[in-house]
Amino acid sequence: MGGIGKTTLASAVYQRLSYCHFEGRYFVWNVREEYARHGPNHLRKKLLSELLNDEAILRMDTPFVISPFILDRLKRKKVLAVLDDVDNSIHLDALVEGYNQLASGSRIIVTSRNKQVLKKVADDIYKVERLNQNESLELFHLHAFRKNISQAIDDEMVLGVTSYANGNPLALKVLGSFLWSRIEKDWESALKTLKRIPNPEIQDVLRISYEGLDDQGIKDTFLDIACLFNSTFSRDIAVSILDDGNSFVNIEISVLIDKSLIESNEDPVDNLLWMHDLIRQMGRAIVRDEHIQSSNCSRLEPQQSKSEIKENVNLCRGAFSNMHNLQILKIYCCDDISISEFVKVYTDNIAGHEFKLSTPKGLDPYLSDKLRYFQWDFYPLNSLPSKFNLQNLVQLVLRGSRVEKLWNYKVQPLPLLRMIDLSYSKFLTQLPDLPQARKLESINLEGCTSFVQVFSSLQNLDKLTYLNLNGCSKLRDFFRKASKSTGYMEVAALEELKKF
């Protein structure tokens, strides 16, 4: 990840090792830019010149391949070299060709945002981790307050900034320097702005990783993930949503992990992935720029979330009529909202008897049959559109909706459906039978206070591992012969729940 401290750490190691007995040493700053600016021959000759302490090498008109004479000299010297920010395996191979025969004790240190660059040649790979909370606060204080320890800034504001940086040293330094000597009102304004408009100095560094992606499919997958997920997500779920049968999403995600644009816990069981908030913000900014610059954009990423809309908005019946290839539709309350925060927004909506985003005349028949992910917080209609084909749907999220029944028509195949979240849909009375939803893993009905019946085919859902009925106070008839794979159920406040 850009700004995580790779160069700083390599520089510190270089300075410390320089006190050891090395006969030649050189730190090549920013190989990526130097390679693009001067080409491989110049960079290779500069490295050899410094390590051998011989300026004549710079004037040599030699082929790119290292000569036997120079190689023989290099093999007899103990050298230290740091190659900073190498983004291409070919570039690295060109620079270190023949260096496997260096004198005993020689060291070559390489920093890269791309793990794949290092795998081929490195003896060991060290991942630079994010700073923890204490380290983040210490670094931020160093730049935001310096010696002015008496500056009165609310601790929650300080934590708000360090939380935004999320352990990224560059972000902590940039934001700390920007806020230094500023008054509390400036801090408040800065925090509000950062949630909507990313800091350009930080974003420029992070965007290098995105621009270094040499395949449009990988870029598309990155932008899809940045727009779709707000926190930790399952790789399996991401692939099931994004793979339309004509893509290589699994491989593309692996590339994004190697490029440090996505992080992986490397646990084969849960296989969870995570994207840093700053990187996600960068991806969404790219989408917004695309929207501004082109009338034919592939994604829409609004500046405001639904909870920030100040006036009621009515969608016309044909709002999605031209989006024939729409695969992801996400109308959400706000990013990373906790359950307590969602309940507050939900309560405010109910109390006002108004929903800021509504469709007075419905949506029929304009929802794309290609939809794979459908989220609409506070969905304003009492059912899904009658002609909405769900055969490609993987996740359905209608939190706080006005849905009474999901649909009023016969059962249809749901071969890909993995998750249903209808939490706090207070008008929902029952779920339809889902006998063919064989991949369904999660059902969340928390806070559905009118819910009275669970569908009978629940016993056939072999993949179901999560069922949340917390707060379903009117539930009277609950029959379930669950598979032994069911691992977690929340059933608080259900006195009538029968035991199995």
Automatic annotation (TrEMBL):
UniProt KW keywords: Leucine-rich repeat, Repeat
Domain Disease resistance protein Roq1-like winged-helix: 219-289
A Pfam entry, by short name: WHD_ROQ1
Keyword Nucleotidyltransferase set for record: no
Domain called NB-ARC: residue spans: 1-148
Protein name (Swiss-Prot/TrEMBL): Disease resistance protein RPV1-like
Organism encoding this protein: Ziziphus jujuba (Chinese jujube)
Underlying gene: LOC132804074
